[in-house]
Amino acid sequence: MNLTDILGENGLLSQAILGFTPRDSQQKMAEAIEKVIALSAQLIVEAGTGTGKTFGYLIPIFLAQKKTIISTGTKNLQDQLFFIDLPVIKKILAFPLKVVLLKGRANYLCKHRLANNIEDGRFISRQLVTQLHTINAWAAATAIGDIAELSTVAEDSAIWPYVTSTADNCLSQDCPFYKECFVVKARAEALTADIIVVNHHLFFADMALQEEGFGELLPGADVIVFDEAHHLPDIASQFFSTTLTGRQLIELARDTTAETLQIANDMRHLLEEADQLQTATYDMRLAMGVELRRAPWPENHPSLFKSIDCVKKSLRSLEETLKIAAVRSKGLENCWRRSVELIEQFDLLTGKTPKDTVHWFETHMQSFTLQFTPMVVADYFRTYIEEKKRAWIFTSATLTVKNNFQLFVDTLGLNNSLQLQLKSSFDYQKQALLYVPRGLPDPRAQHYTDALVEAVIPVLQITQGKAFLLFTSYRAMEYAAELLKDRISFPLLLQGTQPKKDLIDQFKSLGNAVLLGTSSFWYGVDVRGEALSCVVIDKLPFAAPDDPILKARIQMLRKQGSNPFQTYQLPSAILILKQGAGRLIRDSRDRGILMICDPRLVGARYGEAFLQSLPDMQRTRDLAKIQEFWTDTVLG
After folding, report:
1. Confidence category of residue 208, pLDDT binned at 50, 70, 90
2. What domains sit in the chain, N to C, each tagged with a CATH number?
3. Distance set, CA 106 to CA 143, 161, 167, 227, 514 (Å)
4. pLDDT tier, 212 (very low <50, low <70, confident <90, very high otherwise)
5. Do the Cβ atoms of 49 and 585 come closer than 8 Å?
6. 249: left (phi over 0), alpha (psi -120 to 50) or beta
């Protein structure tokens, strides 16, 4: 059996899947991947929407019958692969390959932490107590411990960190529940699989040596596929960083309290020291200011540095007491080990900045992140992929800028890769219209969002809702929602008011909704049919100029004699715009309007670079043309 027997005219897929159409682009992709698997080489494939990318790599993987890890950027694609696409191919080809879905440890219930928190019972709200008992009842019935099974507790509930583990707090083989551990069982199952589906975060956690256990899987794999590979540069940068969060300190304090209450009543001083660490950590967060922000590490900030000294003092005091108490239980021994590691990390991340790294912090509602981020990750990543000869495949619909892979190649050090660009099979000239409204002010103007909303409303009236409004900032999104709520009659959905999946499901079922979202809605959202007939983008998605990582990279590129705007800022923004625009046409039957409000698209010298990277669709600046297109193409 060969690729043509499966993907070609009258092939197995044509016979078995209603509506399947053989595509040259899919065949070319499959042939390239078959070759790369045989050579154990590297391949980068940009496969435009509609090329049949998923089957394009799954078929050669099945035919090769080599141990494969498929890594995705989003949970949506992970579920689509495991629950829909892989079972279809497995059934059609009748190959007895074992396929396993493996998630990160935070997705699995930890029985030890559940037992500790049931015993402790100290929670700030009655809702958390109710959810804890719901989880406890489910724990007795579940076979795999995947928290996604329990739909009655929201996936973003504050209870989950209490009953799931991290690499820090896991007791491993010392845990009294080790033989019942859902994480251990999931990884043991994955070791025997032919195809393992993971996500990029789990994959990189192992590569960066921040997670134990998954490392057993990587050495045995012959083929690694990264789908949604456009996420890799950001995720690689994150996982090759040195990081400490306020949450780690708070969890150490809480776990110390829970473990102490489990074994003794004669250790009140340990409970007091744990409380002092919590208080000092919250005080440090307050010293960083009320604003949620990312900023370079300050050279002079007396109140912050004073709070840092308090955290150090509390942490060292807790470590000294835990060292004595560690003999009392494996749980307290684990807390002591964590305290030693946190002291080392905290001293490092509040000290001098290493060479070629960015030292920055980020504030959250009740926590903070301290981080050293390498300015270049290419050398780290190249080292990993060259350790063992195997096939590496990177694929996405958005990897090129003006038909060039250079930014992606340079960022990840993929200089030895083969490259293949496949155009979308969709007829964008017939299916889509790009609208750039006239008269909008500069995006940096104070009343830009007001003007944008005025320009958007007539378009929404034409399309009768059915729109995504994608923003580059939360502030603009929330302000636009406030302006729109009394101006349109269509259902208005806003990111952050409920889980993302629920918002998408509601958007699809309503059929005429207007959904406002920021960064996470630019990627990995697949809404086919009339429910999504218009995508509005507020601004060209340049990174915030005050972002500490961006500022450091700009400085580095200038020192190297490069033009940071042309070589990094512009290409990065183009790739994000391609992703946002890609939400519109998801099927050969889709029709719709792409509205990009930013006047720089047609007024700035670099605007043409954005236009060249978008699909070849009709363009207009005339509102009347939208009505004409809608009447003739969508309604007609």
Report:
1. low
2. 3-98+193-239+377-422 (3.40.50.300), 105-183 (no CATH), 242-374 (1.20.1440.60), 428-635 (3.40.50.300)
3. 17, 8, 9, 22, 33
4. very low
5. yes
6. alpha
Run of H or E residues at 370:
strand 368-374
47, HSE (Cβ side, Cα atoms, 13 Å): 29
Q: Which residue has the higher pLDDT, 601 or 502?
A: 601
CB 540 within 8 A of CB 560: no
Which residue do the tokens 């909704």 mark?
513
* pTM score, whole prediction: 0.92
The per-residue pLDDT for 24 is 93
In angstroms, rounded to a whole number, what is the distance separating the alpha carbons of residues 339 and 316? 8
Which residue intervals of 326-473 are DSSP H helices? 330-349, 378-385, 406-412, 428-431, 448-463
Per the listing, tokens 């104070």 go with 446
Cβ(553)–Cβ(375) under 8 Å? Answer: yes
In terms of Cα–Cα distance, which of 176, 173, 343 is closest to 249? 343
Q: What token pair was written down for 329?
A: 């239980």
Reported as a pLDDT band with limits 50, 70 and 90, residue 215 is: low
* CB-based contact 301:370 (threshold 8 Å): no
Copy the structure tokens of residue 150: 């329990």
CA distance 20 to 85: 13
DSSP state of 584: S
* DSSP assignments along 167-230, one per residue: TTT--GGGSTTGGG-HHHHHHHHHHT-SEEEEEHHHHHHHHTT-SSSGGGTGGG-SEEEEESGG
Helix 302-325 crosses helix 330-349 at what angle (to 10 degrees)?
Answer: 150
d(CA 610, CA 343): 47
What b/e readout covers 132-155, taking b as 16+ CB neighbours within 10 angstroms? beebbebbeeeeebebeebeebee
Task: Tell me the β-bridge partners of 147.
Answer: none
Helix 111-120 crosses helix 126-139 at what angle (to 10 degrees)?
140
Give 175-184 pLDDT, tens digit per residue.
999 999 999 9
What is the C-alpha to C-alpha distance for residues 575 and 569, in angstroms, rounded to an integer? 10
Percent helix, strand, coil in the chain, to 5, is: 50, 15, 35
pLDDT for 211 equals: 44
Check: CB of residue 457 under 8 Å from CB of residue 626. Answer: no
Query: Which stretches of 350-447 are DSSP H helices?
Result: 378-385, 406-412, 428-431
More confident residue, 544 or 264: 544
Residue length of the chain: 636
226 has which bridge partners?
71, 394
Backbone φ, ψ for residue 468 (5° rounding): -100, 130
pLDDT at 158: 87
DSSP conformational letter for 616:
-
Separation of CA 375 from chain center: 20
- Which stretches within 326-396 are classed as H helix? 330-349, 378-385
Going by their DSSP bridges, the two strands 242-245 and 368-374 should be labelled as antiparallel
Q: What is the pLDDT of residue 213?
A: 46
**C-alpha to C-alpha distances, 215 to 473, 569, 600, nearest whole angstrom:** 37, 35, 47
